[in-house]
Amino acid sequence: MWKIKFKDWMYMNFGIVLIACATYFFLVPNHFVTGGMTGLATMLGTAIPILTTSTWLMILNITMLVLGFIFLGRKTGIWTVYCSLGYTAMMLAFEQIVPLAHPLTDESFMELCLGILIYAVGTAIIFYAGASSGGMDIVALVLQKYARIDVGKAVLCANTLIAFGAIFIFGGVERSLLSLIGLFANSFIIDSVIDSFHSCKYFVVITDKTELVSEYIMNQLHHGVTVTDAVGAYTQTKKGMIHTVCRRYEAIKLRAAIKKIDENAFIVITTSSEIIGKGFRNI
Question: Do 203 and 269 contact (CB within 8 A), yes or no?
């Protein structure tokens, strides 16, 4: 258990670094509004100037953290507080170490692409570790839990209204359109990265050496095997058909081992988006 917790902690720290880098170096200097509590607080501070933007941001983040504890449970809530504080600390550290007065380049679209790619990957890694960076990510996780919406689609739903609101409050059609492009790209990249974490390989192997191949899978890869009898329609030859699943990094070893055991084996390998069961992912 402690190994799993340490692994999740490392994932969360790596994700925090990525989203902080993306926000500080690419998104904020170019004034890209792709949703989130920061964008909402900025709009509220402009539309309702009774409170400052920082005050609105604090109120919104506290509200979201409370909702996270209520709807997502104690574990996710604690990790979300950790990620939120870590993200804020990283941004403050960047301000002191690498102060930026203007964008890194004059290529806004290139910086948008880099910023959204890095931010989405970081967000997906934090989601995969069972936490969130706070703000609208909490709304996304609540929608995923109770409405069964993919995380990326939930992020898109939660942030679209904010991005559209920024168009009317701040103006600047070009910058707003770029922000909308980034918003849509962000949601799809998050889903793609999360799917890549869960994807596995499904093997169907037709071979004369069923026992040897099965022993390798069970003893070396520690995965289960299902064996059925098969008859070739053309040759009427009886062979064994092995069904098994493994992780992506194990697929290369398994393919090489099968060919070493039986060079005439017929192998079909397909990609599965998710495997649920013992030895893989549990619900």
Answer: yes
Q: Residue 63 to residues 39, 55, 89: CA-CA distances in angstroms?
A: 16, 12, 20
Record: fold of 199-272: Alpha-Beta Plaits (3.30.70)
Q: Provide Rg for the chain, Cα atoms.
A: 24
**SS3 of the chain:** CHHHHHHHHHHHHHHHHHHHHHHHHHHCCCCCCCCHHHHHHHHHHHHCCCCCHHHHHHHHHHHHHHHHHHHHCHHHHHHHHHHHHHHHHHHHHHHHHCCCCCCCCCCHHHHHHHHHHHHHHHHHHHHHCCCCCCCHHHHHHHHHHHHCCCHHHHHHHHHHHHHHHHHHHHCCHHHHHHHHHHHHHHHHHHHHHHHHHHCEEEEEEEECCHHHHHHHHHHHHCCCCEEEEEECCCCCCEEEEEEEEEEHHHHHHHHHHHHHHCCCCEEEEEEECCCECCCCECC
Q: 209 near 248, Cβ under 8 Å?
A: no
Domain coordinates of the chain in residue numbers? 2-197, 199-272
Q: Which residues of 225-264 are buried (b: 16+ CB within 10 A; e: fewer)?
A: beeeebeeeeeeeebbbbebbbbeebbeebbebbeebbee
Query: How far apart, in whole angstroms, are the C-alpha atoms of residue 144 and residue 174?
Result: 32
pTM attached to this predicted model: 0.68
For residue range 124-154, list pLDDT tens digits in order: 888 888 777 766 767 777 777 777 666 666 6
Q: How far apart are CA 133 and CA 11, in angstroms?
A: 12
Q: What pLDDT digit, counting tens, does each position of 175-197 carry? A: 667 777 877 787 778 778 877 77
